[in-house]
Design a protein that fits this description.
Layout: H1 11-21, E1 33-37, E2 40-43, E3 48-51, H2 54-57, H3 66-76, H4 89-102, E4 106-110, H5 113-131, E5 137-141, H6 150-154, H7 159-162, E6 172-175, H8 180-186, E7 191-196, E8 199-200, E9 206-207, H9 210-222, E10 226-230, E11 254-257, E12 268-272, H10 293-308, H11 311-328, E13 335-341, E14 344-349, H12 354-364, E15 366-367, E16 369-371, E17 375-378, H13 386-403
Parallel strand pairs: 3-15, 5-6, 5-7, 7-10, 10-11
Antiparallel strand pairs: 1-2, 2-3, 4-12, 8-9, 11-12, 13-14, 14-17, 16-17
């Protein structure tokens, strides 16, 4: 067999290798990045990009934060993996930290947000069936996104993600977002859990109404169901509180988290309190890699940075400024609204030109995201300052001018 070699970083060779050997699950931009620092990325041709997407809300402490890098390096030199057949001190410390920050009582660690949500669903189903055999119904919301596994997809209220993989997991219903009446109709004695995002991310950065989350809490209590909040995208300071639910004053029974928690290293967590925290017993659930020493060391470092460097307060402060600046823009295509919380914001355009603006922004050196045809999403690192926001706005203005939108 002839050995093949690739000139690392070469865009054309990389694109060719992708076409031949990588499954086409993403439409990728024509760039290869070789390094990152703070809110910036540099491509292999030396161009600098301002990253206001942060790896889709992952790089909350910026790219290659020195404390996260040091933690990974030190841990990798000592112990990378041992499996969950043994006690892992870094895992125990991370669980303590997350429970302190969230008010939850116990944690299960996985490798992604989808896996964390799968664990939450399994807890709900097992607990429900312990109450009555047919208490297996799950209720989610239109516009939601909980992951791409078959279970999480069944609660993801977007047909474009679900349709190709039907039939989905049974006993899952999807109700209109922020519609209390529809939620009341859907929840019954058969419901084991209501699963919601406090702010829908992939659904277009749509915050829940406070009354809606309060109604969900009351319905869950009334019907002996669990309230599960998916904070995979909103958690770890992004919305201006450490977890988004803390800004609403409504506490879930189960809380899922991932993305920003690892500072760029893959890790997810399912946190629970009360009866939900006691459901899993040995053999009920598991993971080969989840909660390993290396991932937990990275997460501990990232969470310490967020806490000790005041990034939650910064997200709140810079979020207000970014929102004001986005509202001040008046592109020809028109802006219907700017919505979100903290540094999780969306600009909703009056015309379906979001993808044109996205591509133009990339050409100008700004990384953002488009949802559908009319929503631009901004998820910058929590470390940004006023100068970065000013730079973002200047690049965005150029992008609008480039497209004529």
């Amino acid at each position: 067999m002839q050995e093949t070699t690739l000139t690392r970083g070469n865009l054309e060779e990389t694109q060719e290798a992708y076409q031949k050997h990588i499954m086409a699950t993403y439409a990728r931009f024509p760039v290869v990045f070789e390094r990152g620092e703070g809110p910036y990325l540099w491509s292999t041709n030396g161009r600098r990009y301002l990253d206001f997407l942060a790896g889709i809300a992952v790089n909350a402490v910026g790219h290659c934060h020195p404390r996260v890098v040091e933690a990974i390096q030190k841990q990798a030199a000592c112990l990378i993996h041992v499996s969950n057949l043994y006690h892992i001190s870094q895992q125990a410390e991370l669980a303590q930290t997350l429970c302190r920050l969230s008010g939850m009582e116990k944690a299960f660690f996985a490798n992604s947000g989808a896996e964390a949500n799968e664990a939450a669903i399994k807890i709900a189903r097992k607990l429900g069936r312990s109450i009555r055999e047919d208490k297996t119904a799950l209720v989610g919301a239109e516009g939601s996104f909980h992951g791409r596994t078959l279970g999480t997809l069944s609660l993801t209220g977007q047909e474009k993600y679900q349709k190709p993989y039907e039939p989905l997991v049974p006993d899952c219903s999807i109700v209109p977002w922020n519609d209390i009446g529809a939620l009341e109709t859907a929840v019954s004695g058969r419901t084991c859990a209501i699963v919601l995002e406090p702010i829908q991310g992939e659904g277009g950065v749509r915050p829940a109404d406070p009354e809606y989350l309060q109604a969900a809490r009351e319905l869950a209590d009334r019907h002996e169901a669990l309230l599960i909040f998916d904070e995979v995208q909103t958690g770890c300071g992004r919305t201006g509180t450490f977890f988004a639910f803390q800004g609403y004053g409504v506490t879930p029974d189960i809380l899922t988290v991932a993305k920003a928690m690892g500072g760029g290293f893959p890790i997810g967590g399912c946190l629970a309190r009360g009866r939900a925290a006691e459901v899993f017993q040995p053999g009920d659930h598991g993971t080969t890699y989840g909660g390993g020493p290396l991932a937990c060391a990275a997460a501990l470092a990232a969470l310490k940075v967020i806490e000790q460097e005041g990034l939650v307060d910064n997200a709140r402060k810079m979020g207000r400024l970014l929102e004001e600046e986005l509202r001040s823009l008046n592109p020809p295509c028109g802006v219907r609204e700017v919505r979100g919380k903290g540094l999780m914001l969306a600009m909703v355009l009056e015309q379906p030109v979001a993808r044109d603006v996205l591509n133009a922004a990339f050409e100008e050196g700004l990384l953002i995201n488009a949802i559908g045809t009319d929503v631009l999403r901004f998820l910058p690192p929590l470390i940004i300052g006023e100068d970065h926001i000013s730079e973002c706005l200047e690049l965005l203005k150029k992008a609008f001018a480039r497209t004529g939108a």
